[in-house]
Amino acid sequence: KGKAKGPKGRKITLKFAKNSIRISFDGKRRLDLSKLGITTFPNCILKLADVDELDLSRNMLRSIPSSIQNFKKLRWLDLHSNQLEELPKTIGRLQNLFYLNVCNNKLTAKNLPEELNLLKNLHILNLGLNCLDSIPSSLGALTELREIGVFDNALTSIPSSVQELPKLTKLNAERNPFPDSSEEEENADLKRIETLYLVQDKDLCHSCLKMCQEERDKMNNLKNMTPSPPKKPSFPLLLTPNSPAKDNQEEWRLR
């Protein structure tokens, strides 16, 4: 039996992890371990807990250990597209966290820790594509939150404490089973908030990206379709000094 080729399923060593650190455009140290087929959290990276950003997206992780709290400086945590069924309570101790993406996992409302409301500096939160039938109203304590995604879940309502967050400008709650009869009244505020798609183009496969772009173009075309007044026919050659019909325009008139 030969070993699997390529990075998928590769055991993460400390040396490999060190070589995976990149410096972002704003000088932050980013540990990128995405798309490696990782099934368990690599404990060796706890020795690199001074990084500013951690990307474990597009793997096969089922859980995140409580030791995630050791990443004291962490501002950016991307866990999207794994198989996470819960988040550790200690995630609330990441007081510097600015961005948290747990989109496309298997999270339920029951296993969404209340400690998320301790992330006082959180600006962007993506909970889309999970199994949430409710959102804890305690998220209303995240007064710095600007953007939130809860699309493609099983939500029937959005807590008013979340809708009324003072700095919230973008909310994507599409494709949830909101009751038709009360959606307009109970979720009226949602329509006044700009739609947000937190998944970046670079994270999509070619076919998905093409489909999204086509849908986006269709929507833009519909928005831009405004009736315009009919244009009057223009015959500039009949009016210009060099017009060949200048000397005999009677022949050009409709009879």
Automatic annotation (TrEMBL):
One of its GO terms (cellular component) is cytoplasm. SMART domains: LRR_TYP (SM00369). Keywords: Leucine-rich repeat, Repeat. Residues 220-255 are annotated as: Disordered. InterPro entries: Leu-rich_rpt, Leu-rich_rpt_typical-subtyp, LRR_dom_sf, LRR_domain-containing, LRR_R13L4/SHOC2-like. Residues 68-205 form the Disease resistance R13L4/SHOC-2-like LRR domain. The keyword Repeat applies. PANTHER family: LEUCINE-RICH REPEAT-CONTAINING PROTEIN 18-LIKE, PTHR48051. This is LRC18 protein. It comes from Steatornis caripensis.
